[in-house]
Amino acid sequence: QSALTQPPSASGSPGQSVTISCAGSSSDIGAYKYVSWYQQHPGRAPKLIIYEVTGRPSGVPDRFSGSKSGNTASLTVSGLLADDEAIYYCSSYGGNNNYLLFGGGTNLSVL
Amino acid sequence: QVQLVESGGGVVQPGRSLRLSCKGSGFTFKSFGMHWVRQTPGKGLEWLATISFDGSESYYGDSLRGRVTISRDNPGNTLFLHINSLRSDDTAVYYCATGQVPYYWGQGTLVTVSS
Questions:
Q1: How far is CA A23 from the centre of its chain?
Q2: Phi-psi bin for A59: left (phi > 0), alpha (psi -120 to 50), beta?
Q3: Is the minimum CB–CB distance between A64 and chain B shorter than 8 Å?
Q4: Which of A72, A73, A87, B61 has the most C-beta neighbours closer than 10 Å?
Q5: Greatest Cα-to-Cα distance within chain A, rounded to the nearest angstrom
Q6: d(CA B5, CA A110)
Q7: Residue range A32-39: average pLDDT?
Q8: Phi, psi of A32 (to 5 degrees)
Q9: Of B37, B44, B59, which has the smallest distance from its Cβ to A96's Cβ?
């Protein structure tokens, strides 16, 4: 069982928006600004798409946005494209005893 | 551009040890923390270990705690992960990554623990 809880699946039609949640606790997501989101296509390494809750690395479209409220973080993908179909993982710093925590991943389907 | 290349994977018998390496290039290796993350077939990501930029601090996840050591050679731009007493459930793709949290990732090296 993963330390952070994500829905196993999500879906949307091309052009629509979808939001993926990531539930943690007051010891991880609720305590720190170091929430990241990763996109992984089959057979590929994970790719960072959101860092420090809302930051976007260079080259990541602004269709991807992150937020946090209390112990839950969220990733919103707007204007869905077929290439957005992938597994999305959230991650949070959890202090020195649980330095890095991952969610179980959400399989996003673009219908 | 930032490149991370893992090596050292392969088929290993249960109970044996293994050392994985990760060679970095395209960035100032000695200035950044480094991480190891693994992914079992068809499963999610699992953080294993993190080491500070200068190697003075290291942190370990519960899954391999006591069986694993992370280390680095800054002059050689290389990160290491040594795993003892390998078990079948250690079969996974092992990734290295750099940044305060994993920012840039390598392509991974597959470790298969089997007799």
A1: 11
A2: left
A3: no
A4: A73
A5: 41
A6: 32
A7: 96
A8: -130, 160
A9: B59
